[in-house]
Amino acid sequence: MRVLIMGGDGYLGWPTAMDLADRGHDVCVIDNYLRRTIALQTRSEALMPQPDLTRRAEIFGSVFGKQVRVVIGDCASYATLQKVFEEFRPEAAVHYAEQPSAPYSMIGQDEARLTVTNNLNTTLNLAWAVMQHAPECRIIKLGTMGEYGTPNIDIEEGWIEIEHKGRKDTFLFPRQTGSLYHTTKIFDTDMLWFYVRTFGLAVTDLMQGPVYGLSTPQSDADQRLLPNFHYDDIFGTVVNRFLVQAVQGVPLTVYGKGGQVRGYLNINDTLQCIRLALENPADHGELRILNQFTETFSVTQLAERVQRVGEQMGLPVEIQRIENPRKEAEEHYYNPAHSGLLELGLEPHYLTDGVVASMLEQVLRHKDRIDEDKILPRVRWKT
Amino acid sequence: MRVLIMGGDGYLGWPTAMDLADRGHDVCVIDNYLRRTIALQTRSEALMPQPDLTRRAEIFGSVFGKQVRVVIGDCASYATLQKVFEEFRPEAAVHYAEQPSAPYSMIGQDEARLTVTNNLNTTLNLAWAVMQHAPECRIIKLGTMGEYGTPNIDIEEGWIEIEHKGRKDTFLFPRQTGSLYHTTKIFDTDMLWFYVRTFGLAVTDLMQGPVYGLSTPQSDADQRLLPNFHYDDIFGTVVNRFLVQAVQGVPLTVYGKGGQVRGYLNINDTLQCIRLALENPADHGELRILNQFTETFSVTQLAERVQRVGEQMGLPVEIQRIENPRKEAEEHYYNPAHSGLLELGLEPHYLTDGVVASMLEQVLRHKDRIDEDKILPRVRWKT
């Protein structure tokens, strides 16, 4: 199957490309290094060195004997994306090509504009490229569990039937987010849903929780193929920050009360989910929404988990509550459904002590590269 | 009160500017003639001649002795909008600065992109200009009843309490539209709601139905101050098309079954609603949503109304059903709430036979300017 990975240089884009190419798919990646550029501008570079995409493809080719096509280009340019569609004629497109940082989208007007313009245009261009050049192409779009926010009712998988004053209808589940970035992800979903119901696109929207993990079969074979590991306040996840703080011997910084619950998953489960979505495609005219996570933790639970495993490894780990730089509920109801991917066959890898230990070991090997200035919050939800 | 009208050259922008200036407010309009440019490009010019904005302000000044400040500039440029905020320091901003045509947004990729980019950036820039330069400034944003679409449940005014599996929460009313343009209006609402709840903006979102009417106290005083009257398939409303078809002696073209019900209002009621929103501002941290229409009609009912009045005036009027160029429900449930503005004091002007007759008379005076090529659908909801 010819699969186009938009945003193929990213934390998930590159591992997805390797996973699918390794399984015999014909894979093309496109990326304009937007994340690397922003990381450089905001002093938020990843912990481990990252060969550029062309070099990564060369290394992957030499180790696995499989080719990944590389296009360096901007998916927010329709001319660029059209050219790729005309030449590669993808049968499926996996859309990761977004400015992915919530804190970045909250820095200022320029960053807000970049986030809105980039994320809306990459999605709009994808819809049009499919309609004009590859009408059979299946779209797999990465959404985020953050679109739902933390409502006081159970979160369903994308859709909800509402009974109101004696009548009923089914709607997209109401969504209300905690950052402008997450708000652009709502726009993505609404825009694709418009083109799905109007022109019959076939879209799977994977509402993903925060992903952790550095180890995939491909990166285990050659460390130069490691996924990007960001631990900074802009691109880093809370899991990565805690791992680096534990290794560095500084306190794990919990934002506010630490009762923020989210659904997490292992990077290998993301790869499984993408495969399941490819192998079980949505129908034309269908927007299928799947909630993509395997277990939920509060921030405090994560901190305590990293503390316990770190101490077993001889690392002295403290936990410290700091003022929350974000505006968000620090204690809330959270009960999101996530049966769709399990029904498709997902076999979860959970966040065991062993998984935490192996991530800590990987970070320990790069301890000399940790820059403490990158860890604490530099962006606040203020004007 | 210093009031900034963004999109001050539009069908509603200019009458709003005159109405507020006439009542003693200090009014500044900004517009980059985007609608005029698109109208020229798509051969969709208005029926009556439209002096440019500077000339309109001169005419208005000479007739009413009041000044309207004019800025020719693009609200989608943050530098431009910032400069206006710094110099004029508005206490309220009325946001009409959007690409307003649903058919235009459906022409092709370029038009889709322009609609998304313009409409999202004008709204984003407004939020930021207020946050950075005029934190007390009240925002009045024109939404559209089209954001709600035609759900099978009663439409509330912006918000709905959902009870689900024994728990409750309040959300923005679910919205699902019939065009990309309308979808960008959903984005506007979601984006402003994000900045309202995160940074305390004070926003009134007026979900307006199609507006009709050419007569306001200011345009009655001098015909050069008439609102723009578009009767084409791109910018024209169904009411305007029917009026022109009746005058021209060609059949009124009903799209499909004609059972599409919408909420309509007179342009003088739009002016009242803007005043009511200005005089009764939303609180900081509040997104107040008001459904802005006074009565509902199906397309067939409108056609029959124009036919009846036209025949009373000696115009032979036929009604003809044609293939619907849009994808939309042609028969549907429709019961939208609209009590909020009535409670604030709105005194509706209804679409009486007299009002229809006076609009027909105004169009008759310009019959020689009608271009029949502009009336029938040129844009179809197809790729």
SSE blueprint:
The structure is a homodimer.
Chain A (H helix, E strand, L loop, with lengths): L1 E5 L6 H10 L3 E6 L2 H8 L11 H12 L3 E5 L5 H11 L3 E4 L6 H4 L3 H25 L4 E7 L14 E6 L2 E6 L7 H20 L2 E7 L2 E2 L4 H5 L16 H11 L3 E4 L5 E6 H13 L7 E6 L2 E4 H14 L6 E4 L17 H5 L8 H12 L19
Helix pairs in contact in A: 1-10, 4-6, 6-7, 9-11, 9-13, 11-13
Q: Note poorly predicted spans of chain A.
A: none
Q: How much strand content do the residues of chain A show?
A: 15-25%
User: How much helicity do the residues of chain A have?
Assistant: 25-40%
Largest interface: A-B, 46 and 46 residues
Number-wise, the strands of chain A total 14
Shape of chain A: globular
Q: How does this model look, in words?
A:
In chain A, helix 1 (13-22) crosses helix 10 (267-279), helix 9 runs parallel beside helix 11 and helix 11 crosses helix 13 (353-364). The first copy, chain A, is 39% helix and 19% strand. Chain A has helices at 13-22, 34-41, 53-64, 78-88, 102-105, 109-133, 180-199, 217-221, 238-248, 267-279, 299-312, 340-344, 353-364; strands at residues 2-6, 26-31, 68-72, 92-95, 138-144, 159-164, 167-172, 202-208, 211-212, 252-255, 261-266, 287-292, 295-298, 319-322. With 383 residues, the first copy, chain A, is α/β, with parallel strands linked by helices. The longest helix of chain A has 25 residues, at 109-133. Chains A and B meet through helix 6, strand 6, strand 7 and helix 7 of A and helix 6, strand 6, strand 7 and helix 7 of B.
